[in-house]
Each structure stands twice: as C-alpha cells, then as structure tokens.
Amino acid sequence: MAAGPVVLDGGLSAQLTAQGCDLSDALWSARLLLDDPGQVVAAHRAFFAAGAQVATSASYQASRAGFAGRGVGAAEADRLLASSVELARQAAEEASAESGDGRARWVAASVGPYGAVLADGSEYRGHYGLSAAELTAFHRPRLEVLAAAGPDVLAVETVPDLLEASVLAECVRGLDVPVWFSFGAADGRTRGGEPLAEAFALLADVPEVVAVGVNCCAPQEVSSAVRLAVELTGRLAVAYPNSGEGWDAAARDWAGPAAFDAADAPCWVAAGARLVGGCCRVGPGRIAELAAALSG
Description:
By secondary structure, the chain is of the alpha/beta class. The protein has helices at 12-18, 31-35, 37-50, 64-68, 74-99, 114-118, 132-148, 162-171, 196-201, 222-233, 265-271, 284-294, and strands spanning 6-7, 54-56, 106-111, 153-159, 179-183, 185-186, 189-190, 209-215, 236-240, 246-248, 253-255, 273-276. The chain has one domain (6-295): Homocysteine-binding-like domain (TIM Barrel), CATH 3.20.20.330. The chain is 42% helix and 17% strand. The strands form three sheets. An eight-stranded parallel sheet has the order 1-12-9-8-5-4-3-2. The relative contact order is 0.14.
C-alpha cells in the first residue's frame, strides 16, 4: 500500500449471478460454500483475470446462525466459514500459476455486519436493537475462525453504525491479522445516521487496523470520506463503492442508474485511498477498467 494502490475485486454476488448461480437463498453467496464451492473459485478467478490483486472471501453472510437455518451445526458452519478463505487462496494460487507473471495476489476474509445475516437489508440501517454483548457473541467466534484460516487481511465491511463498529474494533484486537474497516455511507454519515467522523475516530487507536474507509456506497461519497478517514485515523484508506444503483430490500433487486466510473479512481488515490475496488454490481469488466486507470 505504501508503494501505490492495490486493486481489490468487485461484487462477488454479481459475478456469481452472471455465472448462473441462484442467490435467492438467505445465505446469499455463502450458500455456495455448501452447495457449489467451484463456482466461488471461478468467480474469484474472473476478478483476478480482470486485474484484481485481492480476492474477498464468500463469507460476508456466513455465520453459525445463518447456516443453522440450513440444518448445519456449529462445527460444520465453522468449517464452511474457513473454507471461504481456502477457496479464495486456491483461486489466487491458480491465477498466479496460470499467468506466470510473478504478481502478488492476496486474500481478504470478508466480515459482514450482523444485519447481513438477516438478509433483509438491515446492514443499510443498523441499530438492530441488540446489546454490545449480543453483538460480541455473534462476531467474535466467526472472526476467530476466519483469522485462524490464514487470510492476508480481515475485511470488516459495510459496518452501519457506531455500536457495531465499537464491538468489532474490540473483537479484532489480538487476532494478529491486519484488518481494514469500511463503513456503509450516505451523505457523509453512516448508514445508521451517525457522522462518519465519529465512526472513523473509533479506529484510530486499534493497532490491527491498517486501513479505514467506505464500501457499498455511491461513488460520489468516496473522495470526501477517504480524506476524512486519513485525517482522523492516520491510516491509509480503503474505498470500494457500489455501482451507484440503489438496493430495494423488499424486491431484493437493484434500481436506478449506475454511476461507477473507473476514471474517478485516481482521484480517490490522490485523497489517500490505497485499497481500491468495487462492491455490489461492479463486475470484472469494471475492475479491468479500474486496474487500467490505476496502472500508472
């Protein structure tokens, strides 16, 4: 990151859908860890082929509680959670062997918010009515499993509010794995409505955190958020907005115009972003454009 921007991947679910996968299950892309892991490897490979340097694991909605709905016990759920990192690593190794380009490729273990498990869009609202202790009981075991699986970094992403951010900040302490934190954002605030400045400030003294920023937000949110994150935390920033379309939780579909433009990425880097990619509805084609825009 100190040498220059690192290109992240895009929306895993969008690529899986493009491959013909049915993601209507409440587990979303995590369903394929159980039913068709080869599709997950293929999706990661598609992003590496487009120029991504990081594969983000299919663990965003994976949890013991989520898998319990499919009759999967805790031990098997933990195995599936760890397998998300192993599949991403497999894709990275295959891509490196096939290309022979000597390029480093990394694995980020995705840690989605509690709301992602509810599969009702709650990660875009936050404030679930749970206590800090309840959120800790949910997050700590899955973080420990993911950290033990050997990712290069934990991607704590789409965090919607200050309470969950503070819980996650405590849960990552002592895991001995670098962490990036990214918040869902709208109009300079978290999805839960609090100032982004307060959210970023929570992470300034967490030694495991190597980058702070935003994801799954409209592209126009990125530059100001990145500058604020760098100013308040002293860290480099992470930025991977969605396509700019809006998510309709009731219809479980996207609506509105797309606004993701890879030509904006150099501006994000100038503002302090060093981990740069895309989120929902940003496929390998857009990541290829992003990689080209940042290649200089």
